[in-house]
## 1
Amino acid sequence: MLSRLTRPRALAVCALPVVALLAASAFAPLPFAVAQPGLTANVLGENKGDPVITISGAPTRRTSGELRMTTIEATGPDASVSLGDVLDGWFRTDRAVMPLDSVYPSGDDVEEIEDYNAEQMRKSQDTATEAALDYLGEESDDIEVTLKLADVGGPSAGLLFSLGIVDKLDGDGSGGDLTGGRTIAGTGTIDADGKVGAVGGVALKTQAARRDGATVFLVPKAECADAESELPKGLRLIPVTTLKGTVSALVALEKGRGPVPSC
């Protein structure tokens, strides 16, 4: 039958199922999440009335400046994301369309995901404490660190937690602050050996950081390209791979001498 149709008529007939599919997909839920810049929190300060970092067993120092961990906000695992939502997010710089399983790898049950993220945050806090105390040569048996951050899950605040602990206990090592009085933001997981790991949504996190006053952003080195893709004006990127290297970069930035890495 198709071989007897003229070419224009044949194309029209073939296009009908495609048009119908597109029309249906415009309203059908798709396996994506739409993300946007989320909250930031100063780990050197308070969150909802409670100190983010509490240390006992060792003297702490008064700090200046801010170390802001960053987040993204995404549509929930049970949200209905349509083709229109995807197309809108695709063309906006303050939105990102991400596969659902990359945002919620643990399943589609909301309670299960919340439990998973809370557990990831708890492990991240424990590891961040271990990495910071190891960097400072302190024993975890002597110093107790409590980290508290409401309504945030996952492991991506690990680096900022470690830096906050270092700043409260030792600063730059010579009486100054790691921040140099600046508002510094960043992201990155951390392991017990102080190695910084990559995270997701970096381009959105830089926007959240600049919105909340940051002028410097610490980014896992492997994600420099993502961070540069939508980098807000007035925000300087410093790529990092280890806690030790991050502290060295911040000290160099504070004192205005020595190399400060760049993407």
## 2
Amino acid sequence: MLSSGSSPLTVERESMWRLLMVAGAVWLAIGWTMLRLEPSSVAAVAGPVVLFGALCEVARALAGTRTWWLNAGLAAVFTVTAGLLMTLPFWSFVAAAALVGWFLMVRGVVDIAVGVMARGSDRVWSLLVLVGVLQTGLGFFAASPFSRTARLVMVVLGALGVLRAVAELVTALRLREMAGPRRDVLRLPPESSAGLEGYAAGVSDVEDAPRWRARHRARPGGSTVAAGVAGGRSDGGFPDRAVRTTADLDAFLAEAGVTGSRAAAVPEGVELAPEAR
């Protein structure tokens, strides 16, 4: 699972999972720290948190994914939000909570959209959607009139750190899982490799086998097979024996007085067996 539109099959840098692993650990530390701090200046604390979220989006944009433009756009939006929080320290915690809620709602909606789009290619897409729903709900709560105290805003920041830690760590583990098979994508297990080699050898033998052609072809003035039988010689093949047997049977039927098309179907120039005369 890669949030913000990334897919494990499109990531080009194998070291990306390490960076996301570090980011997840930092987010987890942020979530724990927010719950332990005294809410003296909510805006001064929320500014660096949102700025770190913008830096994570920059790292995703530089990872070579197909949706780098989406990560770059989120990085720009979050940078402006963090700048407002840090440059206007006189804002009340209500305004700071509204900006944090904006960050959470945007991030959650993007995660939901990307998770739904990746449902056919990523088996953990439902986890991404769940994280997005929780982030959206948390952002709605932070921006609503219910968040009236600084302590609630700090709890929201702590929950933000935990949710982003889950998203980043799961993404890092998925990238690490996909990094190995991408290098050995053409390698098969020994049993499958042996079976594939045997199948290829059989196909090659069939294609290289000589093409059997008919030994007797019709010629003007009579059949080659009939001429060979009339001369008292036979190649010993099944067609020769079949033609001679048929001719003998037709001769017996004609001698017995049985009329029909088969009795008159003795090839011209065919010498019958002595007992058939």
## 3
Amino acid sequence: MPPVVPAGSLIVTDWHRNRESKEYFKRIFHNKKRRQFGLLEAPVMPPHLKVDNICYKIFISGKSGVGKTALAARLSGQEIPSVHYETTGIETTVVFWPVKLKQNGRVLFFRLLIWDCGDNALRRFDHMLPSCKEQVDAVLFLFSYTDRTSLEDVTSQIARVTDPSDRIVKLVVGTKFDLIMHADVSDDDVARFEEVSGLPVFSVGGDVTGGLGEVAPLLDSLTEHLWHQDCITAHSVPLSETAHTN
């Protein structure tokens, strides 16, 4: 399993709060809301802003009802569905996230292609899971704070979706963190899971449509782990020679 990277080891965390980042982040906004990008679209950068675009495939895994589709909407700044429905096939969402490297101040624009597939569809159709796993760079394993069994299910999800020898990024996300009155998972439960699994847990919840405050820690960590994994794989080969660079 790839090592857990301490936050801020490679990138400037919370860079979206820095004044110098505004010129980059405004490229993913339109009328003060996050822009929705199609599969063939990308932020238009002015000539004086030099950035490298890097593409990654992210798969969201979790039992039915934990909020996989809602997380994809949250990360992309879309409106979060008010009513749950089972995803019948594979849905893809594009998320762009700029980061600044600590070592040399270089700005990278991460293009995250998020794959979301309903758990029932994965179990019903044998070809779904292999399609989601093919050339995947990271997996987000989800559980809901309102459903203890969903946290217990994460371990089996990890065994089902990945192999111990996989060199892919694995992060765990707890959804519905804002529903404190209905919480079925405690902080102690999460701490024990982190200790046993060795994986970091991120918590999300509430309505952040158009905002960055809550999603920034998860996106920062995800992109930092992806970049770290690429550096290990490439043995510090220059960015222009790695497979993910456009």
